[in-house]
Specification:
With about 210 residues, the protein is of the alpha/beta class. The protein has a single domain (about 5-205), classed as Vaccinia Virus protein VP39 (Rossmann fold). It contains six helices and seven strands; from the N terminus they run ααββαββαβααββ. Strand 4, helix 4 and strand 5 form a beta-alpha-beta unit. The protein starts with a helix and ends with a strand. The protein binds S-adenosylmethionine (SAM). S-adenosylmethionine binds near residues 41 and 105. S-adenosylmethionine binds next to helix 1 and strand 2.
Length: about 210
Amino acid sequence: MGIYERRIFPFILDKQMNKDNYKHERDSTLSNATGRILEIGFGTGLNLPHYPKHIKKIVALDINPGMNVKAQKRMLESGLNVEYHCLNSEMLPFETSSFDSVISTWTLCSIADLNSALSEIHRVLKPTGKFVFLEHGLAEEPGMQKLQYWMTPVQKIVGCGCHLNRKIDELIRQAGFQIENLERFIMDGASTPLASSMYRGVANPV
Ligand SMILES: C[S@@+](CC[C@H](N)C(=O)[O-])C[C@H]1O[C@@H](n2cnc3c(N)ncnc32)[C@H](O)[C@@H]1O
C-alpha cells in the first residue's frame, strides 16, 4: 500500500464524507442497526456518532491501516466500545452466525473480491440477522451507466479501488440474501455525479 492510499486518501475521504448531506444519510441508514454489530470498511469512523443510543459496542474492520489515525480519535470520543481490526473483509476471522447486523456504508464499491466479502458477511450473520447497506453504484439511466463504465478505470486509481458501475442490489441477491427493503435515490452533494446513484437497504441471509 503506497503513500497516497495510506496518508493522502484517508485525509481526502474524511473531509468529503464528513459533510452534512452524508451525516443525514448515515442517520437514516444506521437507525436499522441492532444487536451485535460488525461494521466493514470502517474508514475514519464517521458512522460512530450516528449509531442509535441503545448500541454500546461494535466490532469494526478496515483493510487500510492509514484510516486508523483519524478513526482512533473518533473511537475515543464516541463513548462506544469499539473492537477494531485492520483486516480484509474477504476473509473474516469471526464465528459463523455470530452477528445480528453487518453494516456497510460506501464500502462495497471498493472491495476487490466483492463476492467473497458478501459470502463472508452472509456466513457471519445469524439466520435472523440483517445486512444494512448504503452504497453508490450503477445508475438507472443508460447515458450515466455508459459514463460510469468509461470512468471506472480512472476512479479505481484515484478512489483506491472504487468502482462506479456495481449493481449493488443484484450482487447482494447473488450472494444469497433476500432484500427486505431497497431505496434508490440520487444523493445531492456526492463527491461526483458519477457516484450519486444510491442503494440503501436491509437484506436478510436466506
Ligand atoms: C469510501 S470508504 C467508506 C468509509 C466508511 N464506511 C464511511 O462511510 O465513511 C471505503 C472504505 O472501505 C475500506 N475497504 C476497501 N476494501 C476493503 C476490504 N476488502 N476489506 C475491508 N475494508 C475495505 C477502505 O479502506 C475504506 O476505508
